[in-house]
Design goal:
Strand order of the largest sheet: 6-13-12-7-11-8-10-9
Oligomer: single chain
Radius of gyration: 51 Å
Length: about 550
């Protein structure tokens, strides 16, 4: 469903991509190239050697934790005179530890080189100062603990000299001495760290290097990326717009749409054909008889000849002494009903059946132009002359196609009288039954002029023509209700201008290879079949007259 919708609106999608790409190109070219944003980076190093009581790896992790502590950024802010949030300073600093080398890198980034140097060195000095303060506090605490232990040991020793030594007293004295010895070792380590600057060596940053954040997206340097992004946005917008329009579209496009809204079966799908070029100027059954369009009309001809209205929808054999009359109409103008009438007449005549086309479109007659006859006099004369004898006998004009004759409508009527026209035309249709095996009546649109509905009682079947993408669902439902209320014998719907055709394009080129030396205009065509089943020489039919030149379709009927 979605694929069909996208294929139906592919031009809209392409246009959306093109417009979006051009817009992106215009924006890219109109935007002046922006210089890259320059910032500066300074790096300070802190090297610390591990002591006997604290391994090197633990020192690095402890330094990172200490530098990330909330108190250190406060000290840095005080040293730099920064009055904002100290955490903003921490956000501009990156701490990276290397446990193998015993290094802590303090990388500071700022808009100016001076500020980057101050920030990196400020964190380094603050970190060293914090370590030194911690060592001093620790040394004081250890010395206090040693003094307390020394006092306890002295008291215990004096007591051991005056009193009888007990095992418990000796054990307590021994534990105190061991604890004192351990604290002396700790104090020695702390003093050693204090002597070499807290066991930390700081390599302050002496310079800041500039770094670039890259150019702007809208600069010509990134024009290709901008165009790709614009094309993708245009594609997305085009797809969304196409699906939205398809959801809101109530036009008839496919066979399924026509059968759903008209309520009648689709008996023929006529592929869309461009009217440009030599083959698009005439009837496809004559100028391009090897095309899918011509084959669709040939199939319609078979159905039209085989169909006959009967009781309860069952087909019955037609009377032998009278021809079949089919009326071709549409809901309104532009559906191609006159073209369908002419093409169907050529296709039926190509099978050897005599055909008489009766032009009943008295407002915009075109049938005579398609079949190549004069329209100086026609059926419109029945309105201006009193009924006498055969109304149409002298109005029948033979075409260049054997077996095909036409009763043109005549010059357009300026002020028709439908109340007078319908009865006289009905009489003419009854007379036409005896003139050919098949009578095709070309009328105006069903809702264009009101007199078309008055002819439905005089015909054996109605072919309803609709053009893909032109008629709406509401119009189709109105046609359905009208024809059903008039009990019109509907043969089916002919859908013209079909672009979503189920038969692949290569089908006809593969199965209907035109023999070499044969023209599609009808040269070399075998004789058409006569009414009795035999073929007449020269391609003429035994009924309906003959012609000096055969313009029937070139494809033989097998």
């Amino acid at each position: 469903m979605y694929v069909v919708a996208l294929r139906r609106h592919w031009k809209l999608i392409v246009a959306s991509v093109v417009v979006a790409t051009l817009a992106g190109l215009a924006v890219g070219l109109a935007s002046p190239p922006k210089p890259p944003t320059i910032s500066y980076e300074a790096t300070a190093l802190i090297v610390r050697q591990g002591t006997a009581y604290q391994p090197n790896a633990q020192n690095i992790f402890a330094l990172i934790a200490l530098a990330s502590n909330g108190e250190l950024p406060v000290k840095v802010a005080e040293r730099l005179g920064f009055e904002g949030d100290p955490q903003r300073l921490l956000a501009a600093v990156t701490l990276t530890g290397d446990t193998d080398a015993g290094l802590l890198r303090i990388v500071a980034t700022s808009d100016t080189a001076e500020q980057a140097l101050k920030l990196a060195n400020g964190f380094g000095d603050a970190l060293v100062g914090s370590i030194t303060d911690d060592l001093a506090a620790k040394a004081d605490q250890v010395q206090a603990d040693l003094a307390s232990l020394s006092s306890d040991i002295a008291k215990l020793s004096k007591k051991m000299q005056t009193d009888l030594a007990s095992p418990k007293g000796r054990a307590t004295l021994l534990a105190k001495k061991r604890q004192y010895t351990a604290l002396l070792s700790v104090l020695d380590g702390v003093v050693a760290d204090q002597a070499n600057g807290g066991g930390v060596r700081v390599l302050l940053a002496v310079s800041a290097k500039p770094i670039s954040s890259g150019s702007s997206m809208l600069s010509p340097d990134n024009l290709a990326s901008l165009l790709i992004l614009a094309a993708l946005v245009g594609l997305l917008c085009g797809v969304i717009l196409a699906l939205t329009l398809d959801r809101l579209d109530d036009h008839i496009h496919t066979r399924q749409d026509a059968e759903r809204y008209f309520g009648f079966p689709v008996v023929a799908e006529i592929p869309w054909r461009s009217r440009r070029g030599e083959k698009g100027k005439g009837l496809a059954s004559i100028t391009d008889s090897w095309s899918g369009e011509a084959d669709a009309y040939r199939l319609l001809a078979v159905l039209a000849e085989a169909w006959w209205p009967g009781d309860n929808g069952q087909a019955t054999r037609p009377p032998v002494d009278r021809g079949k009359v089919l009326l071709v109409t549409s809901a309104g103008p532009g559906a191609g009903k006159t073209t369908v009438t002419a093409e169907l007449a050529v296709a039926i005549a190509g099978k050897g059946t005599t055909v008489l086309c009766v032009g009943c479109d008295f407002w915009k007659p075109k049938l005579q132009d398609l079949l190549g006859v004069s329209n100086e006099t026609g059926l419109a004369r029945v309105l201006t002359t009193p009924p006498s004898g055969d109304l149409i006998d002298d109005l029948i004009k033979k075409t260049a196609i054997p077996g095909l004759s036409v009763v043109p409508s005549g010059p357009p009527l300026k002020d028709p009288r439908p109340d007078l026209l319908a009865p006289r035309v009905q009489d003419a249709i009854e007379l036409a039954r005896g003139k050919a095996d098949m009578v095709l009546v070309d009328t105006a649109g069903l809702f264009t002029i009101g007199d078309t509905a008055g002819l439905l009682d005089s015909v054996d079947g109605v072919i309803l023509v609709t053009r893909s993408g032109v008629d709406r669902a509401s119009m189709a439902e109105r046609v359905k209700d009208t024809l059903e209320s008039l009990h019109a014998p509907i043969l089916g719907v002919v859908l013209t201008g079909v672009k979503e055709y189920e038969v692949p394009k290569y089908y006809y080129g593969y199965y209907y290879q035109q023999p070499q030396g044969r023209e599609s205009s009808g040269a070399g065509r075998r004789g058409s079949r006569s009414k009795g089943g035999s073929r007449s020489k020269g391609g003429s039919s035994s009924k309906g007259g003959s012609s000096s030149k055969d313009h029937a379709p070139s494809r033989d009927w097998a």
